[in-house]
Design brief:
The structure holds two protein chains of two kinds. Chain A is of the alpha+beta class. Chain A has two domains: 75 residues, Beta-grasp domain (Ubiquitin-like (UB roll), Roll), CATH 3.10.20; 67 residues, DNA polymerase, domain 1, CATH 1.10.150.120. Chain A is built from five helices and five strands; from the N terminus they run ββαβββαααα. A five-stranded mixed β-sheet of chain A has the order 2-1-5-3-4, with helices on both faces. In chain A, helix 2 packs antiparallel against helix 5 and helix 3 crosses helix 5. The longest helix of chain A is centred in the last third of the chain and has 14 residues. The mean pLDDT of chain A is 96. In chain B, helix 15 links the parallel strand 20 and strand 21. In chain B, the strands form seven sheets. Chain B has a seven-stranded mixed β-sheet, sandwiched between helices. The longest helix of chain B is centred in the last third of the chain and has 27 residues. By secondary structure, chain B is α+β, with helices and mostly antiparallel strands. Chain B contains 20 helices and 28 strands. The model of chain B has no long low-confidence stretch (mean pLDDT 97). The chains are: A alpha+beta, B alpha+beta. Chains A and B meet through helix 2, helix 3, helix 4 and helix 5 of A and helix 2 and helix 18 of B.
Chain lengths: 157, 792
């Protein structure tokens, strides 16, 4: 079945089986392997991407549902000249990543949560991040990174 | 290189340099095994046993083989026909009578019997994952289901899992002087007793295990991509013990690895199976574990049941410790499983204390559960949990404070020979305790307790003063204790002609930041910028040799090998400089990237020496080879001994049993710290895994069926961001005396020291209600039950 969608501002058209998940399309068809799969129950958040302005777990939707959608993955967050997004910079500066496997989902979730909650407290960030599992960092520096990144993010609302 | 003190004063040492590896992970271009795709790659799916204990009556592959896209399906018979051995155990433990442990075969694919839910029965290889999955469903296996043995305490009387171990016992092991301990107990003023369970855990690195097997007919060489912590060990075990292949014909690549925590040390059946099948089918084959498979088949951690007794004099001075532990090894012996409840556990039971006599007995059992092996801390968390729970109970029974009983018993002079084989080289336990007490504001605890009380909550404080042993070594002693591999590390320094440096290390980074920390060490020594140094790891085709990363050994063993190679580089570079500066090499000094002649203003930069080594026109060719490339092997003379004191404060709701973690303070002594930012990150991660064990994580098998009840993130509670306060972290530094960096290792400390601090805090909170017994995890249900039981 055919699906057309935009990923990181590039248009794609794929012929895919109906049971293809969005994460499978992103990794295997669009060959963007920055979006990761960490579980099979939509619990870990490693596959989080932005769809039409909001973060979703890309393992939880079928690719066919995404016809016409505008998707941003971790590969599309930095500026074209390679300048990191403020949230990416904050994760680096605050040591908000270790093995890096949950990181793409964390950064995407962080950007989305800061759009809606630009002045979130530590406590609020911790609750809003409940959908993403990290096994390495103990979350401590991720929280620091999100607070720092939020301050430097462009205001979009 | 001069002393450890000189080293710690070099530029970049102790500097929180931002990580070199971060940009690739932050921009999504990291290369984890599943991000790699080889030409005409096929996909493997394993058919796993749905039963914990069963014999296989028949396997029918006819329908599955006819499924579209299927290229091959293999079962145990096929593996056996090709003389592929089972998985080896890397550590031999002997019984007290000198007989060896029971070491049953650990087949790659089941040979007539399955022994845990998730055991490997067949592998299906197909053009697509979906086709392989569908075909796997069509494999017909007929089982004769047997009664499983799940609970280790009941293992002795259960049906035999392996014919060679009719009572399901793998070994009995003991350490220490039993008569001396018995005598001390007779003369004791007070004896404190404790029974406890160290709950079974599932490591859950966020990247699941992934393997790509490939084989080239042209070169008769195999390449195995695998999410693994020690690619050389993987290759050694696979070639020498399992497949009988020449080592140089197999290249193992562990690229970016998404967390390990011990679970990716081991050689697994899937790794062998795909390597073997790649040649058999002449195709590249990929297998990616789904999360459920990770729960079922990754090596699990902990799972001890123990009884401990401490004998004291009237002042609470420890006289003797007696421990009996039963350890669950699971259905088969995983790579280092047998060393965990023995060498890495019992030897740590002196802790930070002067207890003069200790006797430990361990019984290790087979059960119909996944193999159990090292998980972050590996034996040392079990030791710290037992000892620190016991010590706090001693304090409560004698009505002295938790810090006071520790202070009364701390070792204060070093080196210190424990009664359980280890010799601690250095430490300052009272200083750590004092710093932790200040950082945790223990002085303000009573006021906080009153304020919690006013809200109807019970506040408790818990202490834990752990010691651990890292960088397991030296190889010859380990060999005498049963290790079947060496425990050295390898470093190669390749100075390139333009003065940049490539470091090849046998250590493996899967989150630890070696690309940065190791570059700091090299930059400090050679006086060149960090961005001119690349660290290469995880590829047996590029790195000369190595033993990998586990047991917090990377900086102290891998880093020390790099230091040794740098010594050689410096010696050779000085000879080149002496020639170019027309001086004697004994008159050459090297500092800040410059070679100078003593007492003159003659100097030459490191980069010029590098160029000269490869363009040897003005060069002492008669006495010195061109090139500037040195390799060193480093075998430590002792373990390193990180230590620390952790203080936890909790609030417990006596109505619901809900535990709220309010404060957590960790003061550690890791010796020299190269990169404080990275070290603190390691502490944070370890703390959350340890607190996870204490409050929520628990692996549960159904005792009747042997099914894994906690087989997904829906059932196994993973620590999430909203459950933790901000941690207070501090350091004390007594440098390790026997490696050139003074480092001790920091990767596991958090997971070792934190569980007893949490449970002691919960028990302290519940003391007014008379609660004395509580096993991890302290879920609200368990705490509520403990409160109810105390009311009876």
């Amino acid at each position: 079945m055919k699906v057309s969608l935009s990923i990181n501002q590039k248009l794609y058209e794929f012929d895919i089986p109906a049971n293809t998940l969005l994460v499978e399309l992103i990794r295997e068809k669009a060959e963007l392997t920055g979006t990761h799969v960490g579980c099979d129950t939509s619990q870990c958040g490693a596959c989080t991407v932005i769809v039409n302005g909001h973060s979703i777990k890309s393992c939880s939707v079928l690719a066919l549902q995404m016809d016409g959608a505008d998707i941003t993955t971790i590969e599309g967050i930095a500026a074209e000249d390679g300048t990191l997004h403020p949230m990416q910079t904050a994760f680096k500066e605050c040591h908000g990543l270790q093995c890096g496997f949950c990181t793409p989902g964390m950064v995407i979730s962080a950007i989305d949560l800061c759009k809606d909650h630009p002045n979130a407290s530590d406590h609020e960030i911790r609750h809003l991040l409940e959908g993403n599992i990290c096994r390495c960092t103990g979350y401590h520096n991720i929280i620091k990174a999100i607070k720092s990144g939020a301050k430097n993010m462009p205001v979009t609302k | 290189m001069g002393s450890i003190d000189d080293f710690s004063k070099l530029p970049h040492i102790g500097e929180s340099v931002l990580r070199k590896e971060d940009v690739r992970f932050l921009t999504g271009v990291g290369q984890y095994t599943d991000d790699i795709n080889l030409a005409h790659q096929t996909h493997a799916v394993f058919v796993r046993s749905p039963y914990a204990h069963a014999t296989i009556k028949s396997i029918n592959l006819t329908v599955a083989k006819a499924h579209p896209g299927v290229i091959g399906i293999f079962i145990g018979e096929d593996i056996a026909k090709d003389n592929i051995n089972g998985l080896p155990c890397g550590w031999l433990i002997n019984n007290p009578d000198g007989t060896p442990m029971k070491e049953p075969a650990h087949p790659i694919l089941a040979q007539g019997k399955v022994r845990y839910v998730g055991d490997h029965v067949a592998v299906v290889v197909a053009e697509t994952v979906q086709q392989a999955r569908d075909a796997a469903e069509l494999v017909e296996v007929e089982y004769d289901v047997l009664k499983p043995v799940i609970n280790l305490v009941k293992a002795k009387n259960g049906p035999a899992i392996h014919d060679i171990a009719p009572d399901n016992q793998c070994y009995k092991w003991k350490l220490g002087d039993e008569p001396a301990v018995d005598l001390a107990f007779k003369n004791a003023a007070h004896i404190t007793k404790l029974d406890l369970i160290n709950n079974r855990l599932i490591p859950n690195a966020l990247e699941t295990r992934t393997v790509i097997g490939s084989y080239s007919r042209a070169s008769d060489e195999y390449v195995l991509y695998v999410s693994n912590q020690n690619p050389h060990v993987e290759r050694l075990l696979m070639t020498a013990f399992v497949m009988g292949l020449p080592e140089h014909k197999v290249r193992v690549i562990a690229p970016d690895v998404g967390g390990g925590f011990g679970s990716k040390i081991y050689l697994y059946a899937e790794d062998v199976c795909l390597t073997w099948a790649a040649k058999k089918l002449n195709r590249n084959i990929k297998w990616v574990a789904d999360r459920n498979e990770a729960f079922l088949s990754d090596a699990h951690g902990r799972d001890h049941v123990s009884h401990a007794e401490m004998a004291m004099d009237k002042d609470g001075k420890f006289l003797a410790l007696k421990v009996k532990t039963d350890a669950n090894l699971g259905a088969y012996l995983s790579t280092f499983s047998t060393a965990i409840p023995t060498i890495l556990y019992a030897t740590l039971l002196a802790g930070q204390y002067t207890t003069p006599q200790i006797y430990v007995e361990v019984d290790a059992w087979f059960t119909n559960t996944a193999p159990v092996d090292a998980y972050r801390g590996a034996g040392r968390p079990e030791a710290a949990y037992l000892l620190e729970r016991l010590v706090s109970r001693c304090a409560w029974e004698l009505d002295i404070s938790q810090d006071e009983i520790r202070n009364r018993n701390f070792i204060k002079t070093f080196p210190y020979q424990t009664p359980v084989a280890l010799q601690y080289d250095t430490g300052d336990f009272p200083a750590i305790m004092a710093k932790a007490n200040v950082l945790a504001d223990v002085a303000g605890f009573e006021a906080r307790r009153k304020s919690s009380e006013a809200k109807g909550l019970l506040r408790g404080i818990g202490y834990s003063s752990y010691i651990e042993a890292c960088g397991l070594a030296p190889s010859n002693i380990a060999g005498a204790l049963g290790a079947r591999a060496g425990l050295f590390e390898v470093g190669e320094i390749r100075v390139n002609p333009t003065g940049s440096v490539t470091v090849f290390t046998g250590s493996h980074s899967h989150g630890q930041g070696h690309e940065t920390t190791f570059a700091q060490v090299v930059a400090a020594r050679l006086g060149i910028p960090i961005d001119q140094i690349d660290v290469v790891h995880g590829d047996t085709g590029r790195v000369p040799f190595g033993m990998g990363t586990y047991g917090s050994r990377s900086i102290s063993v891998g880093g020390a090998a790099i230091m040794k190679a740098l010594d050689k580089i410096e010696i050779k570079a000085k000879k080149i400089a002496a020639h170019m500066l027309e001086a004697s090499d004994t008159d050459i000094d090297f500092a800040n990237g410059e070679f100078t002649v003593k007492g003159t203003d003659k100097k030459i930069a490191f980069g010029a020496i590098a160029l000269s080594a490869y363009v040897p026109h003005n060069y002492p060719l008669e006495t010195l080879e061109p090139g500037l490339n040195e390799t060193a092997f480093y075998d430590p003379t002792n373990f390193t001994f990180p230590s620390g004191t952790y203080i936890c404060e909790v609030e417990v709701n006596p109505e619901s049993g809900m535990v709220h973690l309010d404060q957590f303070t960790a003061v550690d002594d890791f010796g020299t710290i190269i990169n404080p930012m990275i070290v603190e990150g390691q502490v944070h991660g370890g703390l959350v895994q340890g607190i996870g064990q204490a409050l929520m994580e628990n692996c549960v098998y159904d005792e009747d069926s042997g099914d894994l009840l906690t087989g997904s993130f829906m059932d196994y509670t993973m620590p999430r961001a909203d459950l933790f306060p901000e941690f207070k972290i501090g350091h004390v530094c007594t440098p390790c005396t026997h490696n050139p960096l003074g480092t001790k290792g920091c990767g596991e400390a958090g997971a070792i020291g934190s569980p007893p601090a949490v449970i002691n805090a919960v028990l302290d909170a519940l003391r007014p209600l008379g609660v004395k017994e509580l096993d991890m995890p302290a879920t609200s249900h368990r705490v509520w039950e403990a409160i109810m039981a105390a009311k009876q």
